[in-house]
Design brief:
111 residues, alpha/beta, four-stranded mixed β-sheet, two-stranded parallel sheet, 6 strands
């Protein structure tokens, strides 16, 4: 589940679980969607403990981004491992849904 670690007005910070996959994503989506429905406009997700991020997890991130964008909101993902950061770079999502000031790392050997 998403574990909310900070809430201030329309800003929410939550920690993602170790596995963001087919088994956990439906519950994560429900919690994230409810937070947005209840007024969250700036969602920061701490991914420092994430080991597995599969396509269903990526889809959840995109869905939250798409919901927040027309609300003048934002989705930020922090604490990405080098592997997960490189995955988001390859998918073209790094500058959209990750910490804008975080160093952009590509896959080994370049892109």
């Amino acid at each position: 589940m998403l574990h909310v670690t900070d809430r201030a007005g329309d800003h929410v910070t939550a920690r993602l679980p170790e596995d963001v996959d087919l088994d956990t994503t439906p519950g994560l989506r429900a919690v994230g969607d409810r937070m947005i429905d209840e007024g969250c406009r700036h969602l920061t997700l701490d991914a420092s403990g994430v080991v597995t991020l599969d396509s269903t997890g990526i889809t959840a991130l995109i869905a939250w981004y798409q919901r927040l964008l027309p609300l003048d909101g934002s989705l930020t993902v922090t604490g990405l491992s080098d592997h997960l950061s490189a995955l988001l770079v390859r998918l073209g999502l790094h500058g959209v849904i990750t910490e804008p000031d975080a160093p952009v790392t590509g896959p080994p050997g370049g892109v």
